[in-house]
Amino acid sequence: NNNNIENNSSKDNEKMLAPDFELESMDGTKLKLSDLKDKNVIINFWATWCGYCVLEMPDLQKLNDKYKDEDLIVLAVNVGETKETVQEFIEENELNLIVLLDEDSAVANNYGLRSFPSTWAVNKKGEIVTGYVGMMTYDLMEKLYEYFNQEWNLM
Asked: How large is the angle between the packed helices 2-14 and 138-154, nearest 10 degrees?
């Protein structure tokens, strides 16, 4: 068993720090990733025109609601759209996730976004622990969340 922990800790050293960013949320306040250090963060890059993004939103909402009082924050980062477009979508779909606006796609580019939706899991140390490209089922989202806990147990 010791070997496993050693292997994991050597992998830990290679973990990539999540590129920091500061984006505006729907209510106009700015949110900075590095200010969320005491939380596990799931960053979901999406757009209203992306059918798969729209389909997975209710599940992201469900995950957020289930764990938000523990240690999780879900950030839904809208890429390249106007605040008005996004606001309309949020109201139509009755979402209350934290939605951030990456209107010039700068943050998406920093994360190497190639297709929508793309999701990254960032731990309390600001490291990317895992990611997923494409639409996630709710079960997959739960697995993503479990990554945080597995890692926490090693510390």
From this structure: 110
Mutual orientation of helices 51-67 and 138-154 as an angle, nearest 10°? 50
Is 0.90 surpassed by the pTM of this model? no
pLDDT in tens, 54-76: 999 999 999 999 998 889 999 99
Look at residue 152 and tell me whether its pLDDT is greater than 60. no
Q: Which residue numbers are catalytic?
A: 53
Residue 149's Cα: distance from chain center in Å? Answer: 16
Beginning with the edge strand found earlier in the chain, give each strand of the sheet holding 22-25 in spatial order.
30-32, 22-25, 98-102, 72-79, 40-46, 118-122, 128-133
Do 121 and 130 meet the contact criterion of CB atoms below 8 Å apart? Answer: yes
